[in-house]
Specification:
Elements lengths: L7 E5 L7 H15 L8 H17 L5 H16 L5 H12 L9 H8 L4 E6 L3 H9 L7 E6 H4 L6 H10 L8 E5 L2 H10 L3 E5 L15 E3 L2 H8 L2
Parallel strand pairs: 1-2, 1-4, 2-3, 4-5, 5-6
Helix pairs in contact: 1-4, 2-3, 3-4, 5-10
């Protein structure tokens, strides 16, 4: 049974449902192979560093989506000392990433259970041309009553308008009937907090909260924790 007053769960995609690190690693290797460029394992962490920084800058209004397209590969190439066409690599990388679906442990099964008790919404700042093809390959897609992708509505978490759009897509529930679940303190937890919703920080590694003014209602490490918190 549903132990809480929540009727709807607004759930982030990458690093929350999907194992983005694993998918990214495969997409990068395929991309470099397509251009017949050698790829060293240690480059994964370098690309990840620049990718996370780029998306954080975008969510804080510093970097545009167009700038993200090339900045990550440009910075990677500069650091590792190679030459590449950043735009071409971006296009191939996005195509590869859109074809890869890996879930975090028990996420898929848990979502099927939660969908029997709550209305689910998928909320993501990801690129539509990555998310839509990947969702088409995902067993969980039919579980969601709303799928909100920032690039399609031209609003980015933590913008209150992003959450207002999601609430409208769900039929207008009150904020206290909604729980936001995500890994990003600034975008997911901070955004949900601004929208007057309770929040659940998905934090598998137990990292400290270093986001001033953001305080999640709950903090969990696994999808089993989420299930137990909401249902058991």
């Amino acid at each position: 049974m549903n132990k809480h007053k929540y009727r709807y769960l607004l759930i982030d995609a990458d690093h929350t449902i999907y194992d983005f690190d694993r998918s990214q690693a495969e997409a990068l290797e395929r991309t470099f192979a397509a251009f017949e460029q050698s790829f060293r394992p240690e480059w994964h962490s370098i690309y990840t560093k620049y990718n996370l920084a780029a998306w954080d800058a975008h969510e804080r209004g510093i970097l545009t989506r167009e700038e993200i397209r090339t900045v990550r590969f440009t910075q990677l190439a500069k650091e590792v000392g190679i030459e590449l066409d950043a735009e071409a690599y971006h296009e191939r990388y996005v195509e590869n990433l859109s074809q890869i679906v890996h879930y975090l442990d028990t996420a898929e099964d848990t979502l099927h259970v939660l969908a029997q008790h709550f209305g689910l919404a998928l909320i993501t700042n990801g690129l539509p041309n990555v998310q839509r093809p990947r969702l088409a390959r995902s067993s969980i897609t039919p579980l969601f009553k709303a799928i909100v992708i920032s690039g399609e509505i031209h609003r980015t978490k933590p913008d209150p308008d992003f959450f207002a759009h999601t609430v409208e897509a769900l039929g207008g529930p009150a904020p206290d009937e909604c729980l936001v679940i995500g890994d990003n303190l600034f975008a997911d937890i901070g955004g949900g907090q601004q929208a007057g919703m309770h929040t659940c920080w998905f934090n598998p590694t137990g990292k400290p909260n270093q986001e001033p003014g953001v305080q999640p209602t709950y903090s969990v490490r696994t999808w089993m924790d989420i299930r137990q918190m909401l249902l058991d």
